[in-house]
User: Which sequence fits this backbone?
């Protein structure tokens, strides 16, 4: 099961373990043209960002877009529930502990499937999200490689704060039984009060962490498997460079994209780039199951709507001081 462009390559290849990631980096950087290609790419990115920050092209259109997309906030609980719910159901039915390489017993698989269906239906959303998040945390303690599924943790935490939203069975039950026990607590959107700034941060940590982990763990630390994936899919026929440069490019792109999202740098743009990378992987890798991408697609969509939030470099560096103070 892949997650990004060549992510989780160990699910489709089975070469020897990678003995020397540092040596691989030195060899890749030492190949003719590698530093030139990376330098040109970094220069282009720097020029584009600097030019945008200086002249702000299409600023009026960007402002209208941001103002209009605020009306999509009502859909955030639904987006999160659908995306992470499908991932949980897929994991449960496949009898794995989130990652395809980690088998699960029947009880754990049932827990994931059950909480996934509850999230899809919008029934007991907060308890379901917290139970699934607890299962993730416990699994992560004994299996640190689960960091590659950090998007699931971010989505579950955000879902627990936002609540079920509409449409959901929780909302319908509250309408039918407004005086029922816990009716208000079950449907209240906590992000509209005490935790408004936490949702973008949680989503950024989940999505950015998943991208960065894919770049560092899936590409660099097990580079032999990444090289095998390049060979299997004949990627050098698409872009005629050495396989090592393919892997190095994936490491740089995914790690840099993850860092940008975590720090909240051009958050909406970074989320769109992440969405594009995921879409490319979806069509470029024929045996890549769609369910592996759903959580990442969902979190990317959430960030396009919310932006970086209060605790982001976007807010600190790009928003005028007066507006930032009013926003606080």
Assistant:
């Amino acid at each position: 099961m892949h997650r990004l462009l060549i992510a989780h390559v160990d699910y489709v290849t089975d070469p020897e373990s990678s003995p020397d990631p540092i040596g691989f980096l030195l060899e890749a950087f030492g190949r003719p043209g590698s530093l030139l290609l990376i330098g040109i790419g970094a220069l282009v990115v720097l020029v584009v960002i600097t030019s945008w920050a200086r002249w702000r092209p299409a600023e009026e259109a960007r402002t209208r877009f941001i103002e209009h997309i605020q009306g999509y906030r009502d859909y955030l609980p639904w987006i999160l529930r659908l995306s992470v719910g499908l991932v949980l159901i897929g994991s449960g039915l496949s009898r794995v502990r989130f990652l395809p390489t980690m088998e699960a017993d029947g009880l754990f698989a049932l827990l994931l499937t059950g909480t996934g269906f509850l999230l899809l239906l919008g029934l007991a959303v907060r308890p379901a999200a917290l139970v699934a998040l607890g299962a993730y945390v416990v699994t992560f303690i004994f299996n640190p490689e689960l960091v590659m599924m950090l998007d699931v943790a971010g989505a579950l935490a955000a879902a627990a704060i936002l609540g079920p939203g509409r449409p959901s069975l929780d909302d319908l039950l509250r309408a039918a039984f407004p005086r029922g026990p816990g009716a208000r607590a079950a449907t209240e959107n906590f992000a509209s009060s005490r935790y408004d700034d936490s949702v973008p941060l949680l989503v950024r940590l989940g999505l950015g962490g998943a991208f960065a982990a894919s770049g560092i763990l899936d590409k660099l630390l097990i580079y032999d498997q990444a090289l095998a994936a390049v060979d299997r899919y004949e990627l050098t026929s698409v872009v005629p460079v050495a396989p090592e440069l393919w892997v190095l490019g994936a490491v740089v792109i995914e790690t840099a994209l993850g860092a940008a999202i975590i720090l909240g740098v051009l958050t909406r743009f970074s989320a769109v780039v992440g969405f594009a990378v995921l879409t490319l992987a979806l069509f470029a890798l024929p045996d890549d199951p769609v369910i592996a991408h759903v959580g990442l697609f969902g979190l990317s969509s959430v960030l396009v709507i919310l932006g970086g939030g209060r605790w982001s470099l976007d807010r600190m560096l790009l928003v005028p001081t007066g507006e930032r103070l009013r926003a606080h």
Observations:
- Residues 1-33+143-319 form one domain.
- The CA atoms of residues 12 and 251 lie 18 Å apart.
- The radius of gyration is 21 Å.
